[in-house]
From TrEMBL:
Its EC number is 1.1.1.95. GO terms for molecular function: NAD binding; phosphoglycerate dehydrogenase activity. It catalyses: (2R)-3-phosphoglycerate + NAD(+) = 3-phosphooxypyruvate + NADH + H(+); (R)-2-hydroxyglutarate + NAD(+) = 2-oxoglutarate + NADH + H(+). The keyword Amino-acid biosynthesis applies. Pathway: Amino-acid biosynthesis; L-serine biosynthesis; L-serine from 3-phospho-D-glycerate: step 1/3. Residues 457-529 form the ACT domain. It comes from Hippea maritima (strain ATCC 700847 / DSM 10411 / MH2). GO terms for biological process: L-serine biosynthetic process. This is D-3-phosphoglycerate dehydrogenase. Belongs to the D-isomer specific 2-hydroxyacid dehydrogenase family.
Amino acid sequence: MYKVVVCDTISDAGIEILKKEKDIELQIKSDVNKKELPKQLTDADAIITRSSTTIDKEFLSFCENLKVIGRAGVGVDNIDLDEASKRGIVVLNMPTGNTLAATEHTMTHMLNCLRFMPNANYELKYKHKWDRKKWMGIELYGKTVGIIGMGRIGSRVAIRVMSFGANVVVYDPYIPKEKATKIGAKIVDNLDELLKVSDIITIHTPKTEETYNMIDKEEIEKMKDGVILINCARGGLYNEKALYEGLKSGKIRALGIDVFENEPQLNHPLFEFDNVFATPHLGANTYESQIRVGEGIARSVVDALKGRGYENAVNIKMEEEEITELGKQFLGLAERMGSFLSQYIKSFIKRVTIYAHGEIESCTNSLGLFSSVGILKNMIDEHVNYVNAPYLAKERGLEIETKIYDKATEFKNYLLLEAEYDDNKKIEIGGTVFEPNKARIVYMDGFDMEIELTGNIIVFRNYDKPGIIGKVGEILGKHNINIADFRLGRKQALGEALSFIKVDQEVNDAILKEILSIDGAISIAKVKI
Ligand SMILES: NC(=O)c1ccc[n+]([C@@H]2O[C@H](COP(=O)([O-])OP(=O)(O)OC[C@H]3O[C@@H](n4cnc5c(N)ncnc54)[C@H](O)[C@@H]3O)[C@@H](O)[C@H]2O)c1
Ligand SMILES: O=C(O)CC[C@@H](O)C(=O)O
């Protein structure tokens, strides 16, 4: 059983997914005081949070059993990623689920800053004032909107403001220029250029050392008089003191702000201004977005706990690979093949070359990672997982390389692992997946044969002569070991033969020795997957 604790409110749709899993014990602790919370997580296998839970080193020191942190949203600035990685905890987020909600929230703030809608609404309904002069607005049409950070949200805001007839200037040094130019936006090389020409500035970067206080007093001074500022990304990207001064002096016409350096924020000095539109971190708060995020993170956490895949893992090096359902199956296969190899070889493996063929050719980095986990789990007596495997492999001098398989094969998708061990010894195994969750080995060292990579497998090599296999069966029977599956491969009649014998229980070394003593036996090994 895995214990999964939900620490912040997620959608019912996400909760239902977790409830349906038979081997998951679900606990909801979104109402527990945040100081008390870590003490209640000592035996949790996974936790799911949003931005309200700060997961720092001290928090993690209580979570002795933790394997997975699921962040129901984009920003992981509330999680100490280095500490989580050191502890081998996988951190997953759900970056795309709330993109549209945050984009539309940004537009809402922008339009409010242009038209003062909340003030007019308040005065009419609660003060009974019909004042049409006071709430004179300005149009978005024809204005220049400066967008800092042209990622998922920034790029969508750009398209929306352009549809209002505004011009867009982008500052984002980390994107290809065409991302901005192809939609008709202008991209600038330095922030100052954007600050000088923009009537409205909206920021959509993550909170990093580089972006923290990126807009300070000096930057505000460079802006146009009457500039409108929006922050629906992270508190602290705009220096809050500088914002206050800019509003007080009238330099800033209006501010739309959803996020604060310290949250929750009930009594901020910025609240004294009528031209500040503040919301309590509502960017992601739409029903649609919360369903997407809740469902997505629940599925990813279950997958990660069960080793089925690590979608959106932020501290696992999978680079830009898009892993399809089939890809996930092959990652599982790569891990099993790695495990098979290291148990079979039982010696120091110095290099593994993975050859991939078919749809999975694009997953080369992830295939390397998963096979290294399989190899290391048997090589070292330590807690190995997808987070610490690259560090452990490096430390132990295990080199993993991935290449495209360029020989002919009858399989649509195929993996071949070639391991070098001891002094220039080599071994090759091939594998594929024919149907979901059925990883198979289909080739080993020149023998074409297949068996599902699960359970206890005896790998037996012998000279192909009559009577040997019968004797193996006799020995196993004598020790009450039931044979569940038996596969034999030969290169040629009366040459060498290789058998995979699947048995219902693990066999001990004495039984293996007895089989090896049969006349004609060459080698024997046991593998447990
Ligand atoms: N208010 C909310 O509820 C809410 C909801 C969703 C996302 N967010 C926040 O919005 C922000 C953007 O989210 P996203 O999904 O678009 O992220 P993203 O990763 O898709 O985009 C971020 C962009 O910022 C750029 N960037 C990074 N450093 C930069 C720098 N120094 N200068 C200029 N650009 C820089 C990156 O190159 C990238 O293109 C994040 O901070 C996220 O946490 C807030
Ligand atoms: O819903 C939340 O907790 C915050 C959402 C947002 O800030 C995010 O980073 O995804």
